[in-house]
Design brief:
single chain; 167 residues; mainly beta; Elongation Factor Tu (Ef-tu), domain 3; SH3 type barrels; 2 domains; six-stranded antiparallel barrel; six-stranded mixed sheet; elongated
Length: 167
């Protein structure tokens, strides 16, 4: 998921606040990354549009629990419910050849093997069996297609796909 702040650099959402945890200002987080460890790598995060220092974060079963500077009681924590926890795209570690961030795929054009425009990538989903690209077609309909070699390939800043896999 990505957003942008003040038309500046694109932001990447790492988590969302699911609600308050306890009475001392901690928040429950829905992580968009693998674990709380990836969140802990960033001392400063953008929480609900405001920069905040991450004081602590820990895994808590299926979620994580975090504490941010300036969030000292349950009412302030509860007010953050639904807020995104974001970082600037430039704060992410560099990628190796063939790696990508989901956010970098969103907005890419999709073409067929003959180079004809098919649509645009509007989201990337993963339900456990691998990444799926959601392509918005020219007629406004959407289709999910496996992001697998030979089916949908990232080439020269666009997705080249096999039309036979479009629903």
């Amino acid at each position: 998921m990505s957003t942008s702040g003040d038309r500046g650099e694109r932001r990447i959402a790492l988590a969302a606040v699911a609600g308050a945890h306890g009475i001392k200002g901690e928040v429950r987080l829905k992580l968009f990354s693998e674990s709380a460890v990836s969140l802990a790598k960033h001392e400063k995060l953008i929480v609900g549009g405001a920069e905040r220092r991450l004081i602590s974060v820990r895994d808590s079963g299926k979620t994580a629990v975090a504490r941010f500077e300036g969030v000292n009681d349950r009412s302030v924590a509860e007010a953050l419910r639904g807020s995104l926890i974001e970082i600037d795209r430039s704060a992410l570690p560099p990628l190796e050849e063939g790696e990508y961030y989901h956010a970098d795929l969103i907005g890419l054009g999709a073409v067929d093997r003959e180079g004809r425009q098919v649509g645009t990538v509007v989201s990337v989903e993963n339900f456990g069996a691998g990444d799926l690209l959601e392509i918005e077609l020219a007629d406004g309909k959407r289709s999910l297609i496996p992001f697998r070699e030979g089916i949908a390939d990232l080439e020269d800043g666009k997705i080249v796909l096999d039309r036979d896999f479009l629903a």
